[in-house]
Amino acid sequence: MSADTVPSAFDPWSPDFVADPYPAYAALRAAGRVHRFEPTGQYLVPHHADVAALLRDRRLGRTYRHRFTHEEFGRSAPPPGHEPFHTLNDHGMLDLEPPDHPRIRRLVSQAFTPRTVERLTPYVERLAGELVAALVAEGGGDLLTAVAEPLPVAVIAEMLGIPGADRPLLRPWSAAICGMYELNPSPDTARAAVRASVEFTAYLRELIAERRRRPAADLVSGLIAAHDEDDGRLTEQEMISTCVLLLNAGHEATVNATVNGWAALFRHPDQLAALRADHTLVPRAVEELLRHDTPLQLFERWVLDDIELAGVTVPRGSEVALLFGSANHDPAAFADPARLDLTRADNPHVSFSAGIHYCLGAPLARLELAASLRALLTLAPTLRPAGEPTRTPNFVIRGLAELPVAL
After folding, report:
1. Of 112, 110, 105, 108, the residue nearest 366 (C-alpha)
2. Average pLDDT score, the chain
């Protein structure tokens, strides 16, 4: 059986689609369970049950290089000019499979245990309050640059031990590198990502050298200790790639979930009013906002062994695009999925992925989102939009370029 036809509404390069992809996802789900999308050569998977199952299916992987060469897998090697990006990206645990993935994840996971996150709670809540208080003192501004960006950047930079003066470098580097995760990135996007990869790598090499001379109570020093205590346990490149991954993943999703979430609340004043009246709704609100307008819309997997989905054989060497945004709006998994419902109790969203690549920082992200939400509800109870939000042109990483607010 062949894959289903992709409805014309699914056009990830269209501004109208990027503005609101959810009607196109509904058409995609209605048209079938697996679709061959020729512009990217991928198989699109839009249903919640299939996405959740494939995230846990070990016949798929984030990489194939642990089992095959490019030639054996029927793929071409990346252009030589992209090498700095791929060296940086391909040594991070998000793009590794066993045995390398669990080896690195075990070393890093101690920084994200429930106890560690609990110890961070006072710092995160204090910082959220300070940022919101500054926004209130100004009478409003851009919620993105005033609160959504600085909070998670500061938290993950603090954990890693990035000096305060250097933290403004992080978001531009991260944004440039993450541009490569969009579908068919342009040559300009690739050049920006390569340049950011070179600069970010050089910066971290210097930081690692400094921490070798003067260890501190931070994660970079901990990774150095893991490297030095057991030769080969963690290479310097793996240290660098791990730091970049934590910095990128540690704030990109939280930044976008914050602004996407507040834009959704402004569009649903009844839900915002209910939240303002009852702050105990915050934990459920965090989950619902992550589901309702998903910050990561698509996650890719390589097919390492033939799989069959809905009678369609997806052969080894293929790439599947698991559509998180569509899965999170599947009526088979969510009652009335288009409705924002901050009281939703049954909420099995896939915004943090699943399986061995489940987001390591999910507890920290939830803490940050809840802290900023509570601070804004408490200190800025009359917060309102001060103009139309400006959406970024990206599809895969969904967010806003600006969210003007007033009091």
Report:
1. 112
2. 94
